[in-house]
Predict the structure.
Amino acid sequence: MDQFASSRIPISLTVNGQRHQLAIEPWVTLLDLLRERLSLTGAKKGCDQGQCGACTVLIDGQRINSCLQLAVTRDGAEITTIEGLADDGQLHPLQASFIKHDAFQCGYCTPGQICSAAGLLAEGHTHSRAEIREHMSGNLCRCGAYTNIADAIEDVMQSRAAMKEAAE
Amino acid sequence: MNRYDYVRPDTVADAITALANPDARALAGGTNLVDLMKYDVARPALVVDINRLPLKSIEVSGDKLRVGALVSNSDLAWHPDVQARWPLLASAILAGASPQLRNAATTGGNLLQRTRCYYFYDPSTACNKRAPGSGCSAIGGVNRIHAILGASSACIAVHPSDMCVALAVLGATVEVEGPQGQREIPFAEFHRLPGDMPERDNTLQQGELITAVAIPAPQFGSHFTYLKLRDRLSYAFALVSVAAALQIENGTIKDARIALGGVAHKPWRDVEAEQSLRGQAPEPRVFEAVAQLILRDAKGQGENDFKIELATRAIARALAQAAAGMPQNQSDKVIQ
Amino acid sequence: MSVIEQLHVGRPTSRVDGRLKVTGKAQYAAEYSTNGMLYGYIVSSTIAAGHISSMDLTAARRMPGVVEIFTHENRGKAAWLDRKWRDDVAPPGHPFRPLHSDRILFDGQPVALVVAETFEAARDAASLIAIAYEADPHCTELARKRNEAYVPPEKRSGIPPPPDPRGAAEQAYADAPVKISRDYRINPEHHNPMEMFGSTCVYEQGGKLTIYDKTQGSQNAQGYVTSVFGLSGDDVRVVNHYVGGAFGSGLRPQHQLFFAVMASLELERSVRVTMTRKQMFHIGYRPDNYQTVSLAADRDGRLQSIMHDAVAATSHYEDYQEAVVNWSGLMYHCDNVKLTYQLAKLNTATPCDMRAPGAAIGVTAMECALDELAYELGIDPLEMRRINFAQKDENTNKEFTSKALMECYRAGAAAFGWERRAQQPRAMRDGRQLVGWGVSTGIWDAFLQKAQASATLKQDGTLEVATAASDIGTGTWTILTQIGADAFGLPLEDVQARIGDSSLPMSPVEGGSWTAASNGSAVQAACDALKQSLFKLATKMANSPLADASFDDVALEGRRIFRKDDPARGLAISEIMHAAGLSELTEQGKVSPSLIQMMNYISYTHSAVFAEVQVDEDLGVVRVTRVVCAAAAGRILNPKTARSQILGGVVMGIGMALHEEGMTDHRLGKIMNANFAEYHIPAHADVEDIEVIFVDEQDDKVSPIGVKGLGEIGIVGTAAAVANAIFHATGKRVRDFPITIDKILTAPPLS
């Protein structure tokens, strides 16, 4: 059992491919760690209570609300934020598709929507428009870009399916 | 949020030792506890991070499913065997929360999630569940989401889980381990009604930890459904939900299981009402009658009076879905 | 000087800020950092009226990292005079002054600010502050205050009071053969932009402040800060490059701005203050309201009488006002009209303009009532609207600068398939589901406000356009870039828009749907002036090939000016600038409404909204399966971002129809569902198919660039269309919004 006498606990996190050795208090959330201590403000704080999805990041490949994760509990994890989704300046297909379909207005929920959509694609459980809607419902958008977001995700899903088909 | 100590045990034994502290709380997925800590509803002196415990496996042996307490809601819902053989469980899980919350939330944590009662969440109000003896503000207050069955004058809160409603129907067993060793709790006895001790949601003893949930093989084939009614079509807690399962042989009901969510301090089952269905024809008149029976002692609090009628109709509809072998699709929002 | 090809304005154009937003690099107010920055956390009152009798800060002060705790007992220096606290859009009354005294005016009122070295220390120390209150009686229930309603003694600037009655509405109502009189209620709504209110106040050497604020008006915020803290305008700059939604909640300076600046000045440190989501429910809201609409018609459906009375909530300290009932007197032709609007005081924060303030609730009631009357008459609801089409604004007796509403009805109905509708309720089904189709008209003001802009040519021929406008998701960055690009025949990449900064040319707050028309026209004017200056420089150059050309003889393309009749004769912009010895060339432009024109003309944006719902009657579950919104909004600068604005308005309208409601425990005076889990806004699953149509509408009077604006029109009428569709599906008329499961379950069936 790890016993932590001091309030700062050593942890290691790999964020967007970069390894960080940190000493962090156990009451710091992953979201606040990213935003306030690692200057990764792409993950947004929309409610701080797991009720909006704006803080969604990928933890070990899975989409998770970073606002409800105490950073210390994710010691050793690999985290991908919106800042790490583009590959060397080349936009992730979802990012490009969001621009193409105007799938945002104010942009504040957008990083969470895109990270959530990336998680959705990786999960492989989503095959229809209704399933896109349901499986994206953890990401609220007050600007109401929902139909465009669904278009953007569907577009990427279809081109991936087409590529897969062509490869076969 | 308060200041607390933090430990991260690697074994169940070490976790139980740490949880002997009455002000300790076990932390798994964090989706409920961290939220409660931010609201200052939970102010633990010690947070016991149990995420390293070896409780993450899903075992299917013979007819039985055994789910480790730390299996995520997503992993459980999408597990091929669960999808194929326990689809009611999968359906109920997928009706709850959001994909990213389900990725973090665990099986044990789902059982232990606290009520969404507005007053419980607001430390400036009286709430017997949060501050025993302070009173219940929900009675006579904003209570359209509150209980219509099994409530007490001390508490009218409801249990918010969807998964637990399915587990109630499936006849699950909760495996726990504590200072006194291991024991198994039948699901119906796990959650409790508020009575005059609403601060206790369940029958876990001080220092006990859920290690697994065991679920027997379902006997109802495709005759099941999970029907959830709420204030928006996704990402909302149930006003009323119904898990229903029927065993139908030669056009008559051999056995029935019905559990309700969103209406009581625990997933609500009425075995007597279920038994009344035996030998009956699976038809609307019968379903409506059993629905009335289940709600016979229901009592509204004012704003939630509608739930009595809603639950009655939802039970009838869920039984019709189950009888037809047309379980509710959780993505396509059309209710058959 | 024309450009050869205008490639941008009027064409679907992706947002110029899109890349920053999808990569997480667009910075919002709480995302600027500086060394040594402190964090402020606001403590809120837990009673609705009374005063603070004592505060125990001992435990909080002991928290490591806590630097200071501000309360009413040690608040920093701020203006004493009430009027110093008034911002550009304040309603009449006494603006809220944080930590002014021990008095509590509403639940959730800020009563302390904890400032600490880390966010966590501030947050956690705040939970250790113990406050004792002496409570006074309070009332948050509008129903109990209706009998004390009053006509606001002082009119809010910019908000027209109801027009004087015309004709004899009561008599006409009594005499008419067909009539209805109905009560409606729309429960309070909360803006809830996704970004929580935050301000980062950077304290610079010598006490200069750069403030990154979540606001819809950097200059309004800057004016407030200088006025409240007695600072010079030169020492305060407010920046709001990116604003994570606002919908009106950012029109007035919110209290986190006060706190960040006050703490920064007192401590001489940089400070960030962010609200919690719960606190966002106490900064102004769409007011609770009761409305009665009485309509009468002859048997052909022609309106004979319109009476619309509204009572809406306000706070004890300000008379918030919006135009709720006025629309009913101008949307349709009617000779006998009587409209009243009153306020009632509650122990809440002052309400605050929320997307289409006034119209969103007033038009909803009117359009539902008109639907009810159409059924009484047995007339198709769309036809009912056509029959009563207004040719002029009968409230003011002014002509419309344009009104392509008939085309909205036609195009919307065609796209929706309205002609296949069965008139009687409960006639359409899809399996188990009842299907209903509803329609509504939408309307909103088309304003032009005073605005200024600058346009600057750089030596390399690229352009910068600047105005202190804000982009709250509306697409302002993009349309101003498009306007600049087309003025000079440049690709979008060669134009840099600068907005979101109080140091830029004067702009109104971003609201009222006036930004595109006002700031867009100002940018256009600045570009026109800049072209004149450039042309003068070109003709004055030694041996200029354009020496004998007139302004109209030349064209611009490829960063070059040349003769239209001989494109080879021309000059590169860089040559002209170089010859004049200039590194850049700037001109200003400004617009203001024409007062002469306003004497005779008035402008509105219109829409026709068609909604389809499927209702599970037994269970009360409603799905909005289709919406078509056909809008007449003048010239559309960017159909892509314009469409998104309508989509967003429609989604918020769906929320008004079905979901949104702040629920108050009136015994405690507290909003109990002050969070995103229990205050429901539409989620992905609630929004299926929305089609947006922009009908052609030429308008050379509404604004110099022919634009009317789109920020509000999408929401107006949507809730009514959905409610009318629910009636058509079920025969149940729910007049209390939102239309939730319980209300459908308990509504009386069609008799």
